Amino acid sequence: HEACTRSPPGEPPVRAHMSSALLHGAVTPFLDAVCEQLAALSGRPAGGFRADAANEASNIVGGVLAADGRFTDSELDAYLDVIGPLLDPPLTVSTLAARELRLFADAAEHLAAPTVMFDLLCRADAQHGTRRSHEYYEHALRLAHVAAALDLVPSPTEIAAIDGLRSALLAHLDAAGVPRPGRPATVPGLSGDTPRSAPAGG
To answer: pLDDT at position 12, please?
Structure first.
């Protein structure tokens, strides 16, 4: 990839710095929550899921940014500053190169379909009466809203993309027979809280 030619980390434009801080504040909780749930489900260390969780975050943010077909410098700077280093391999390119590479081609369409990771959490919840998928749902939507907020004025198509993501996730929960966030379990004795841990495979 072309070497990154953006402003040095210590001297970013004010808007770009604020956007990066905003995005970082949503990406980190998303990664932590998703990795924690996958670790509890599998019995493996949470760090082993970091790259997969980063790809999920990248797809969510990229899908929202791509919804209106335009990318501001602050949006791209925030993505490259926060998510770029988390990818495998790390993405270190300039904003100009990011545009030329068409990083987010078809990304908006991907928001309309639940990912393999979310499906895994839903199926585990349906089988074991857990609520791990709720952690993904809540943090994914927050991340999507923050991605839209990187623009000074979120566009109607970005808002529509977030609504599409929400609808897709809720429909998948419904199809799996998992209660929606905020709704009580339909089976007596089940708690709506997400357990902090579970045996391997559960």
So the answer is: 47
Q: What angle do the packed helices 116-128 and 50-66 form, to 10 degrees? A: 120
What confidence tier does 183 reach under pLDDT thresholds 50, 70, 90? confident
| Residue located via tokens 């599998």 | 42
> Over 60: is that where the pLDDT of 11 sits?
no
User: Would you call the peptide bond into 184 cis, given omega within 30 degrees of 0 as the criterion?
Assistant: no
pTM for the predicted model, two decimal places = 0.83
Cα–Cα distance measured from residue 114 to residue 170, given in angstroms and rounded to the nearest whole number = 10
Q: How far is Cα 136 from Cα 117, in angstroms, rounded to an integer? A: 9
The CA distance from 125 to 172, in Å, is 12
Enclosing H/E stretch for 99? helix 95-101
What is the C-alpha to C-alpha distance for residues 79 and 20, in angstroms, rounded to an integer?
A: 7
Average pLDDT, the chain: 86
Amino acid at 134: H
* Cβ contact 161:69 at 8 Å: no
Contacts of residue 185, defined as CB under 8 A and 6 or more positions apart, other chains included, come to 129, 179, 191, 192
Q: How far is CA 104 from CA 7, 79, 127, 175, 178, in A?
A: 22, 11, 35, 29, 31
Q: How many residues does the chain have?
A: 202
